Amino acid sequence: MKIKAIITGSTGMVGKGILLECLEREEVESVLVINRKPLGLVHPKLKEILHQDFSDFSIIKEEFSNYNACFHCMGVSSIGKTEDEFLIPTYNFTKALVDEMNAVKSNMVFNYVSGSGTDSSELGNIMWARIKGKTENMILNAGFKDAYMFRAGMILPEKGVKSSTGWYNSIYVILKPLFPFFKKMNSVTTSVKIGDAMINSVCKGFEKKHLENQDINTLATQ
To answer: Which of 98, 105, 141, 181 has the most crowded CB, counting CB atoms within 10 A?
Structure first.
C-alpha cells in the first residue's frame, strides 16, 4: 500500500521527526505539509502549503482528496493558558481540519499526537487532559477509515530534530548523555519510532486506538 500523507505541525519536533521518516520510507509516495511558516526543506516527495487561518481549511480542502493519511502533530503547550485559550488551537482547529477532510475524503487514516495522561472521560480535574480527551473522542467518532491517538510520554529527538519550545531543548541538552540508557526503556520512545509507528498504522493497522509509548514502540517495529 502506498501512503500519501498530510502532516501538520512539521516545524515542531514530533512533526519534523515524522516528516523525515515519511521522506525516507519507500511506502510513502508523497507528503503534503500544512504550515503557517515555511519549513525550509525541499524534497521530490514533498509539497508545502502555507495556510494562516487554522480555524478554516475550506480554501485548501480540495487538496485533501489526493491523500489517504493525516498525521496531525500540531499543538500548543497548556502552560499559562486559560481553558478557552487552550481549547481553540487544540480542539477547535483540529475539528475544523477533521470536518473538511472527512467531507472530502472519509476513507483516510487519521493519527493524532495527543499526550500521556489524556482524559477520555472529559470529566477530570486536569484542564489539558480533558480537552485532549474531547479532541480524541471527536476524531474517533468522525467516521474516518481508521484513527489512532498517539499518547506519547517521554520522546527523545533523533536525526537532529528540535523542539519549537526553547526550554525543552535546554532539557534535552542536559539529558543527552543519558539518551543511550533511556532508549533501552520501553516506556520511552523517539521521534523516529513515532514516525515509523504512524506509517505502520496506515500500512498494517493496530489493535489499539489509544497508543502509549510502549504501544508506539511495538507498532514501530511491525
So the answer is: 98
- Which pTM value belongs to this model? 0.91
User: Using CA atoms, how far apart are residues 213 and 86, in angstroms rounded to an integer?
Assistant: 24
Q: Where are the domains of the chain?
A: 3-220
Q: What is the tens place of the pLDDT at every residue in 125-171?
A: 999 999 999 999 999 999 999 999 999 998 888 877 766 655 555 66
- The CA dihedral of 93, 4, 110, 96, to the nearest 10 degrees, is 20
pLDDT (0 to 100) of residue 154: 85
Total residue count of the chain as it appears in this document: 222
Instruction: Please give the order of strands across the beta sheet that includes 109-113.
Output: 46-50, 28-35, 3-8, 69-72, 109-113, 146-150, 210-211
Architecture of the CATH domain 3-220: 3-Layer(aba) Sandwich (3.40)
Tell me the three cell numbers of residue 48.
508545502
- Per residue in 64-92, pLDDT tens? 999 999 999 998 989 899 999 999 999 99
Residue 27 corresponds to which cell in the numbers above? 511506502
Report the phi/psi class of residue 205: left, alpha or beta, with left for phi > 0 and alpha for psi in -120 to 50.
left
- Above 80 in pLDDT, residue 182? no
Q: Does residue 69 contact residue 33 with C-beta atoms inside 8 Å?
A: no
